[in-house]
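Researcher: Predict the fold of Alkaline phosphatase family protein.
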Amino acid sequence: MGGGRWRRVLSGVWRSIAVWAVSTATMLVLAGALPDFQLQSDNGDSATRVAVTAAVGAGVFGLLSSLVWPLLVRALLLVPALILGLLVFFLNGSLLLLALRVNPSGQSEAAPETAVVVAAVMSAVASATGGALAVRDDDAYRRRLYRLAARGRGRGRSDSDRGPSFPGVVFLQLDGVGHDVLEEATGKGLMPTVARWLATTHRVTPWRTDWSSQTGASQLGILHGSNHDIPAFRWYEKESHEVMVCNRPSSAAELQRRAIGHTGDGGLLTVDGASRGNLFSGGADELALVLSMAARRGRENRSRSGYFAYFSDPANAVRTAMSFVAEVFREIGQSTRARLRKRRPRVGRGGLYPFVRAFATVVERDVVVAAVIGDMLAGRNAVYADLVAYDEVAHHSGPRGRDTEKVLERLDRSLALIEKVAEHAPRPYRIVVLSDHGQSPGETFLTRYGLTLGNLVRAGCGLPVPRRARRTHSGAEARAAVRAALRRPVEESGERHSPPRRSEPVVLASGNLGLVSFPDVPHRMSREEIDRRHPALLSTLANHPGVGFLLVRSEEHGGLVIGAHGAEAPVDALDDEHPGPLADFGPGAADAVRRTHTFPHAADIMVNSWYDPEEGEVLAFEEQIGSHGGLGGAQGRPFLMSPLALSEPAGDGGDLVGAERVHRVLRGWLRECDGPQVPLPMARSERAA
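Model: Structure tokens for Alkaline phosphatase family protein follow.
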């Protein structure tokens, strides 16, 4: 055995002894502080005997945590992920009780509830001590990070193994962070890591989304190269009489299947890739928190394996649980303060929302970041991960403000950690940061006008309108992720539509984009058919001050854009120089609307809300004060931040438009890294571009 190997062995032994000593001291302190936890008999023991009892108890507990804990977590593979997060405390406490029971040095005992607390504190202290000691040794730090991130994955890597010499790529999606928000955050010093990268190693490029400016359309296009026939976040399909919802596992799986069929390509991550926290897999074999795979059952379902890899270290569960509770109270405090100060605009933030927010900003972030760390230290070729924290908070708090600034600061710290881990990875990595859309501020349609889009449509059809408006769901991605983690159905109320009278319209909202469909007509209705059935409907919608424009099919003109006061124009006649009713919506609006008109599942009436180009505000048809889904403002202007070592994303000097174009850029960067690529050299969607 060489000198270097002996030094590593001795260093490991020394760290283990140090952790054991700190754990022993922690147990002694807790025994003195907690009345239901004792390390001596009722008659009292000598200080030496108590110390020996604590030392043996800490040693046995540490041994059980190292050997038994991973086996327990693996045995609980079928338990819903969030339940495991709670169960982890009771299992950890049980291991401590077992350690005390088999301890031959004294009559130590603890109440079950006290054992949970003691075990949690000892796990946290042992993890912190081991990490603090290991970080002083680069090799030990790398080995520790790999063990913590990859435990439970059934894979290992020898310390001497090195990965390929060519770089891998990590794509980190900051969900909902617009280009303007990123620039403001770096200017204010909220994101020092991003600011340093932009000053030294990276560039940032804005890009423009399709009309459907939401994660489903953008991420499907980015990961699979096609978002054809994705008209919105949710839409009604007449042939199946069902509503497709991008964040429903069954819908996500079907959309992924359609995209693969459309391109003839498995996706961006087909070769040695990992997909973490996404709606779609991208063709990756390594999956964690991927919604399109969440409908699978049994041990074959690896979409939640990231939870179990993460919670296999009890210290992770302790740290995340503490942060989760803190985030719940932080949200309650922030929402109470906003209500007392009567801030406007404002939406309800009660019920389960504080827990949904804590899941998005703490649990999902921790699990996804840990999975990415494991992927990098395992030397995978391409990793794509989605961090949804900002998007979830901005929906309810607005795109700008102290609430979202705090989230951006924590996201920046996650980027800094991933950058640090890259230094210890077995291969070099290029880190690309991007977003799928931005968010536009503004109060809700319901708040401003006292009725929902659905009720406005009913009024235009001459149907009775309920006196009390029913509030819509926010549709945030994190809510579906929570339900999938709990194995509860993701369908929202009314989304599996069975109208009592099939002649009544189905009205759906996707941010500030509304869709109106008539389920009793098997084809997409024309403007002429709508006018014959409901003569007042189109004029009622187009002339409402909260509506920007409509898109319908015309028997005479094809696609027809209708604005207020009788303004209308064939969509094929519109462009940036002659925008017609789309004048307020900026460059590219006509192209985006024209493309959506060609989709087989475009609604009978597509409704885009009013937009104020001076203030950048829209009116969401959902209960969101930061929204996205249609045209108007920052929601359609995300960013792509790439290393200078990679080619310019818009090499022709033009604008970067559409998620499918971003897919081609990312695919080109993978080729530039000279690694093995997706077997098909070029997908059909790329050849057609």
